[in-house]
Structure formats: structure tokens, C-alpha cells
Design brief:
The chain is α/β, with parallel strands linked by helices and 306 residues long. It has helices at residues 8-20, 23-30, 34-48, 64-89, 104-121, 172-178, 198-201, 227-235, 245-254, 284-295, 299-302; strands at 2-3, 6-7, 53-56, 59-62, 96-103, 125-132, 144-148, 157-170, 192-195, 203-207, 211-215, 220-224, 240-244, 260-262, 267-277. Strands 5, 6, 7, 8, 9, 10, 11, 12, 13, 14 and 15 form an eleven-stranded mixed β-sheet that branches. It has a two-stranded antiparallel ribbon with strand order 1-2. Helix 4 crosses helix 10 (284-295).
């Protein structure tokens, strides 16, 4: 399908190469020859009259024109997909089963609501929700995946829906007993609650004036692998922990006064919310689900950057 006068495959190729930084990896993901991708991008550059890519070491990076065109390319591809979905709606209902594997941080607070809204809109559709304990490692074409954090190359298309900014939180009663930290170094004398091995992977807090501070809590009193259990432990006053601000705001909405942000000017790196799905032409029901999830992204996810 032509997209605003641009070839759809060329736009898809350009966006994919910008995500991977590699023609070789993109060719493998898209299932086409590397020379085909080079030709498509060359046609785009000829059409636009300026180079879109430059090579730095072993990675392809956008030129100034490429960075500008990338946003328009994404918009054109999304417009093309929405147009196709709208046309499909005229002749076919969305029906059949959809499997969604979702990170536990999103399962209750966001995905469950999105699933309900999708089923209400498409009465003949069925959804099976499964918790995702780890990012997919193989090209599982039988499901749509939602992961929080970096996802490895697994043969699935990866699309970042937004970012979850993170900070340190505690229950007010804990701070009354143990004091409020004024600097990241103060956290070394506080009880720490570890989620999914954050401490083992390394935590760096960043300040807009003072730069980065590698955080090394002396030890975790409790380690859990579920964000809900982690939040519950913080709310019960067992220690301090690193939480996404979006999750904390949802908790405070239903339970006011149970969480207090600490070191507000110091923030951990934001985590990407990654949508993973198969390459190629997708079934009508999968395309409709993907568009529904994109439209349901909270504004708070768009406000952060990686």
C-alpha cells in the first residue's frame, strides 16, 4: 500500500533499521535480503533528496534529516494501519481468540481494563490473558506480548508504547521511625525492598544538577518478583523501594496517604513498555488489538523518556 506517496515497504524498512541500527539484523527480522533493504532506503533518500543514514563504528545512525523523517515515517505507517483497519471494519467483524502475555506490572492496573474495553467493542472476540515472567526468547507468533524493560532480539517486532519513570517510595510510618533520606548515600542505612533483582543489576539515580549516583543498598530485607507484592511490602512499612511513578499514583488513587516519594529530585532510569508481535501481515483481530492498545496508552507513559 502506498502511504502518503511513499512506498509502505520502504517506510517499514527505514523504521526497522533505525530501531536495530543494522541492515543485517533488520534483514533477518524482515525476512528479506540485505541488498533489498539497501535499495529501499536508497530510493527513499533519492525521493527526499538527502541522506537519511550515516555509519558510526558498526551501527547505522540517522542524519539530522533521518531523525526528522523517522517521526513522520512512524506516523505514516500508523495512519496506513488505521486506514486499513477502518476499511476492514466495513466488511468484517473482529472475532476469534487472542492470546496476550503481559508483564505483571501491567496486568491488573492497565491490561485488564484494556481487555474489557476491547471485548465490549468486539463481542465476537475472545481474550486469554497470561502473566509473562520473562521477555519472549523465541518468535512466539501465537500471542501479543507486553513487557516492561528492555527486551532481547527474539524474532518479534518491537514497538515502544511509552516509558515508566521511577523513583524511591516509602510508607509515611516508616519515614517517621527511621527518618527521611536527604541524599542517595543515606539509603545505605535504610531497609531496602528489592524487586526482580534491581540491586543485582545495578541502580543509578540521576539528578539534573549533580549527575549520576550509583546506588548500593547494604542488603535487601525482602526480595520479590511481583510488583504488587513489592508495593504491598512498601505500604506495610517494611522499607524503601524503587517504584514506577505511574504505579504509585494508581495505588495512591485508591489508598491515599500510603506512599511518600523520597529524594524527589533523584530519579532512576525510565523503563520502556514494549509491545512485541509477529512480522508480516497480521490477522485482522491482531491488528485491531494492537491499535486498541496504542490508543489506550496513558499520558503518563508518554511524558517520560528513556
Amino acid at each position: 500500500m502506498a502511504t502518503s506517496g511513499f512506498d509502505h515497504e520502504a517506510l517499514t524498512t527505514f523504521v526497522e533499521v533505525m530501531q536495530t541500527g543494522s541492515l543485517t539484523l533488520s534483514a533477518r527480522r524482515l525476512g528479506v535480503a540485505k541488498s533489498t533493504l539497501s535499495r529501499r532506503i536508497a530510493h527513499l533518500e533519492t525521493r527526499l533528496g538527502q541522506p537519511l543514514l550515516r555509519r558510526q563504528a558498526n551501527r547505522l545512525l540517522p542524519t539530522e534529516a533521518g531523525a526528522l523523517f523517522l517521526e513522520y515515517a512512524r506516523e505514516m505507517l500508523h495512519l496506513s494501519e488505521r486506514t486499513q483497519l477502518a476499511l476492514d471494519d466495513l466488511r468484517a467483524e473482529v472475532h476469534g481468540e487472542l492470546v496476550i502475555k503481559v508483564h505483571s506490572a501491567l496486568a491488573r492496573g492497565w491490561m485488564a481494563r484494556q481487555a474489557e474495553q476491547f471485548l465490549k467493542r468486539h463481542p465476537r472476540a475472545r481474550i486469554e490473558l497470561r502473566l509473562l515472567q520473562a521477555p519472549p526468547a523465541t518468535p512466539d507468533a501465537g500471542a501479543v506480548h507486553l513487557w516492561v524493560g528492555d527486551a532481547p532480539d527474539c524474532g518479534l517486532r518491537q514497538e515502544t508504547l511509552g516509558w515508566l519513570g521511577r523513583g524511591i517510595y516509602a510508607h509515611p510510618s516508616y519515614l517517621r521511625r527511621h527518618g527521611t533520606p536527604q541524599h542517595p548515600r543515606d539509603l545505605e542505612r535504610h531497609a531496602w525492598l528489592d524487586l526482580l533483582g534491581d540491586v543485582d543489576r545495578g541502580i543509578v539515580l540521576s539528578h539534573h544538577e549533580h549527575g549520576d549516583y550509583p546506588l548500593a543498598p547494604t542488603g535487601s530485607r525482602l526480595k520479590v518478583d511481583q510488583p504488587v507484592l513489592h508495593a504491598d511490602a512498601i505500604v506495610r512499612g517494611q522499607g524503601l523501594g524503587l517504584m514506577p511513578h505511574w504505579m504509585a499514583s494508581k495505588r495512591l488513587l485508591h489508598h491515599p496517604g500510603t506512599l511518600t516519594p523520597c529524594l524527589g529530585d533523584w530519579q532512576a532510569s525510565a523503563l520502556p513498555v514494549v509491545l512485541l508481535y509477529p512480522y508480516g501481515r497480521l490477522p485482522r483481530k491482531v491488528g485491531a488489538l494492537l491499535e486498541h492498545l496504542r490508543q489506550g496508552v496513558p499520558d503518563a507513559w508518554r511524558e517520560n523518556s528513556g
